C-alpha cells in the first residue's frame, strides 16, 4: 500500500499574520499542522491577495496560480482549499477556481464572507454566473452554519449534497479569568469599529446604563475609532469606555480574561470569531441573530439575542446581566461548555483533515 500523503494547498487572502478572520483561523490551522501534522495529509498555504497595498494583489494572485501549476506538474497537489469572502476576494477566487478546473485539481470552497449573500444577489449577470459555476464545480462546499447551507443550496441546487457545515473555531484560552476587585461589570466589544458591527447602537446603549460606576466597557478594533471616540466624549462616557484601537492576539487574550460580557450587535455576519472567543473564555454573550449566530447562541441558554439595531434591547440585556450575576455566570458556563463540545480548534482541524482525505476527491 502506498504511503503517499494527500497534498493540500490552502488559499488564504493575506497570509500568515493577516488581521482578517479567515487568516486568523487559518493561522491556527497552520500552527496545528506544524506541531502535529497527520502523516496522511500534507498541508501548505499560499496568499492570493497579500498584505500591504491592494495594488500588489495581482502579483500575489499570479504567483499563486503559477505555484498551482508547478505543484500539479510535480504531483504534489491533490486538493485545493479556497477560502472565500465577497467582492474582491470572490473575483480573485473565480480565477483561482477556473485555473484549478483547467489543471484538473479538485477544490473545496470554504465560504466565510458575511456580506456574500448581498454580493452574489447584486452581482452583474456575468459575475453571478461565474460564482454559480465556481460552486457547482466544487468537490465540497464548506459553510459555517445552517442559514448559509440553505442559501447556497437555493442558489446552486445541484450542489446540495456536497455542502458541509463546519463552524468556525478557536483554541481554548491560555489565560484564566481575572476577577475585578472593584466588582465592575466589564463589557467587551471585539471587531471592526463601525456601523456594520452595530457600534453606534452599542455606544447609545452604554449611555443608557447607570452612571453609578458599576460597569466599564472596552470597544477594541480598527475602523471608525476616532468618530466613536468623539461620540463617547459627547455622551460623557470617557471615564467608563476605553477605545484602544486594533489589538493583537496577546492583547485580545488579556481583554477576554479580564471581561464578563461580550457584546456584538452586528447587522450582518457569517459566524463571528469574537463571539466564539468570548464563549471559549466563559463570557456572557449578547449578540444579534444574524448569519449563523443562532446556531451557537441559544437565547437564554448560551447567550442573549437582541434585535438588530435595537439600542434599548442591548441596554436592557446589559442591565439584566448587571443585576443578575448568577444568570451571567450561568450563561458563561454554558457558552464555555458548548465551545468545548463543538467549537474547539482541534476538532475543527480534524474535520478539515477528514474532508481533505475523503474518498470523494
TrEMBL record:
Give TM regions: none
Any Pfam family the entry gives: Glyco_trans_4_4
Q: Which residues form the Glycosyltransferase subfamily 4-like N-terminal domain?
A: 57-168
Q: Which InterPro entries does this UniProt record tie to the protein? A: Glyco_trans_1, Glyco_trans_4-like_N
Q: Glycosyl transferase family domain: which residues?
A: 186-337
PANTHER family, from UniProt?
Answer: BLL6306 PROTEIN (PTHR12526:SF631), GLYCOSYLTRANSFERASE (PTHR12526)
Name the UniProt record assigns to this protein:
Glycosyltransferase involved in cell wall biosynthesis
Q: Which organism is it from?
A: Rhizobium herbae
Amino acid at each position: 500500500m502506498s504511503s503517499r500523503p494527500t497534498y493540500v494547498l490552502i488559499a488564504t487572502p493575506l497570509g500568515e499574520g493577516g488581521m482578517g478572520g479567515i487568516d486568523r483561523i487559518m493561522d491556527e490551522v497552520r500552527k496545528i499542522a506544524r506541531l502535529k501534522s497527520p502523516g496522511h495529509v500534507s498541508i501548505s498555504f499560499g496568499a492570493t491577495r497579500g498584505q500591504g497595498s491592494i495594488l500588489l494583489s495581482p502579483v500575489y494572485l499570479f504567483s499563486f496560480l503559477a505555484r498551482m501549476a508547478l505543484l500539479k506538474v510535480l504531483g504534489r497537489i491533490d486538493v485545493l482549499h479556497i477560502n472565500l469572502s465577497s467582492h474582491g476576494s470572490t473575483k480573485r477566487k473565480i480565477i483561482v477556481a477556473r485555473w484549478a478546473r483547467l489543471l484538473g485539481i479538485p477544490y473545496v470552497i470554504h465560504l466565510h464572507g458575511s456580506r456574500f449573500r448581498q454580493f452574489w444577489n447584486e452581482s452583474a449577470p456575468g459575475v453571478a454566473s461565474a460564482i454559480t459555476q465556481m460552486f457547482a464545480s466544487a468537490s465540497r462546499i464548506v459553510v459555517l452554519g445552517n442559514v448559509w447551507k440553505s442559501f447556497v443550496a437555493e442558489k446552486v441546487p445541484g450542489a446540495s449534497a456536497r455542502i458541509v457545515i463546519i463552524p468556525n473555531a478557536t483554541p481554548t484560552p491560555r489565560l484564566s479569568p481575572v476577577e475585578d476587585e472593584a466588582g465592575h461589570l466589564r463589557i467587551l466589544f471585539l471587531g471592526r469599529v463601525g456601523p456594520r458591527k452595530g457600534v453606534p447602537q452599542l455606544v447609545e446603549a452604554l449611555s443608557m446604563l447607570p452612571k453609578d460606576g458599576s460597569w466599564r466597557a472596552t470597544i477594541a478594533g480598527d475602523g471608525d475609532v476616532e468618530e466613536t471616540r468623539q461620540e463617547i466624549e459627547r455622551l460623557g462616557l470617557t471615564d467608563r469606555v476605553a477605545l484602544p484601537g486594533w489589538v493583537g492576539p496577546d492583547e485580545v487574550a488579556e481583554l477576554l480574561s479580564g471581561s464578563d460580557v461580550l457584546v456584538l450587535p452586528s447587522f450582518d455576519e457569517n459566524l463571528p470569531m469574537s463571539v466564539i472567543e468570548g464563549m471559549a473564555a466563559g463570557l456572557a454573550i449578547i449578540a444579534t441573530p444574524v448569519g449563523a449566530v443562532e446556531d451557537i447562541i441559544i437565547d437564554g441558554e448560551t447567550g442573549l439575542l437582541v434585535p438588530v439595531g435595537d439600542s434599548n434591547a442591548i441596554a436592557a440585556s446589559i442591565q439584566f446581566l448587571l443585576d443578575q450575576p448568577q444568570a451571567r455566570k450561568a450563561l458563561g458556563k454554558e457558552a464555555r461548555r458548548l465551545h468545548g463540545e463543538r467549537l474547539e480548534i482541534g476538532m475543527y482541524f480534524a474535520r478539515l483533515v477528514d474532508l481533505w482525505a475523503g474518498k470523494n476527491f
